[in-house]
Request: fold
Amino acid sequence: MINNQAIISVKDLVKKYGEFEAVKGISFEVFEGEIFGLLGPNGAGKSTTLEIIETLREKTGGTVIVDGINLDKKPDEIKKIIGVQLQTSGYYPNLNLVELIELFGGLYNESVIPLELLERVNLKDKARSKYKQLSGGQKQRFSIATTLINHPKIIFLDEPTTGLDPQARRNLWDLVKDIRSKGTTVIITTHYMDEAEVLCDRVAIIDSGKIIAMDSPDKLIDRLVATGFERPKEVKKANLEDVFINLTGHALREE
Ligand code: ADP
Ligand code: MG
Reply:
């Protein structure tokens, strides 16, 4: 499914906020059909990088090509083929999920079938609920649904699982995998390395505006092990997360 054909190509990207250089000349490619992870500590420049590609922020320097479209020349063409999480909280507190999707569909000039979209993110039974009535995991699933409204080739997810409980986090992994299995390229940021390991075909690790490593999780781990690194031996065959999931199950608890 992944064919090593770049659908996003970023070259020497620089972003300055005043004198401060938040992104210091990074280059990377995202292949068509992959789940690409952008990892790095807070303030590393992940969101800045994503929002530049999403056409939501001006870059200071460098080149960004998305599906053959140059960001400098046709940003509006890029907007049409990408899915970005929309800010749904607070804006229209009295609209239910179906009404919100119809509203966003109108903004995109796309005819959507709200119930079909809600079904895809497992929220059909919440169709008549308001956004504020949803649990954290449901809110994230809804915001992922909004990225799919315009049938994008690529979706951008910025920390979609931050703050979720273990069940909701796993449920979101399944959703992201499902979206990718239908051919959509996914770029995701996360602070959870177990998540990146499970989900991402390749990751770039950014620190202070620079990419310091980029490869598949497996190869990055192998390379570290080859330096002689050894994790302190695990004496137990399970950890506390295993206990938690074993006791509470995989089922979502958000009703
Ligand atoms: P990350 O998403 O990796 O946590 P960000 O891209 O949000 O990092 O931020 C990178 C750096 O740029 C941080 O030091 C942040 O404080 C700074 N920054 C982000 N947005 C702005 C802004 N609008 N004005 C000034 N500095 C900003
Ligand atoms: Mg961020």
